[in-house]
Please model this.
Amino acid sequence: MGGPETDLVSVKIVVGGGFGVGKTTFVGSVSEIMPLTTEAVMTAASADVDDLSAVPDKTTTTVAMDFGRVSLDSELILYLFGTPGQHRFWFMWDDLVKGAIGAVVLVDTRRLADCFAAVDYFEELGLPFVVGVNGFHGEFQYGVEDIREALSISAHVPIVECDARSRESTKQVLITLVQHAMSVHMAAAGPGGS
Ligand SMILES: Nc1nc2c(ncn2[C@@H]2O[C@H](COP(=O)(O)OP(=O)(O)OP(=O)(O)O)[C@@H](O)[C@H]2O)c(=O)[nH]1
Ligand SMILES: [Mg+2]
Model:
């Protein structure tokens, strides 16, 4: 005899953002399976293209995607897809977002200008997203509302400070995203919808 049927729900989440903001680190820290990564070593040839001033220790970059899995509770499993950050690989985002219920857009406040394109991408797509502010070295130089204003992020979009290296922190961002995505979908269903 089999055990009782459980209503196991699995959903797809995308982790996007500009170059070197910590997407691969985020997926790796929260995933309960060994994350699949597609890192390639950055060579001197890319030195003119990739600005490494904010992340001098970085030696590799994602060329296709990151993949991980996390169970938020016994009934909800998230499949995480991290995007490549370098602009020349952004064409892959269009495939990676297919079927996703929402996205985490990671930002690094030391390089806010690099974050616009990622925020714009998800806004135009109409996919619910939350902004995760990755505080490198635990530093949050700007308040959440300053970041909202600087990046022109709508009032209803949650902005959460996080540490991409910490499982508890990244999990909290994902919980915020799932709650936000549910409220967006329920609002879209309208009164009487469910
Ligand atoms: N101090 C600190 N370093 C971090 C943090 N998050 C990421 N890093 C480091 O920053 C660098 C970039 O992290 P990645 O996770 O590769 O960033 P990414 O967004 O996946 O980069 P691309 O795929 O190349 O766009 C790595 O050297 C990480 O070790 C953080 O919260 N604090
Ligand atoms: Mg990466």
In short: The mean pLDDT is 91.
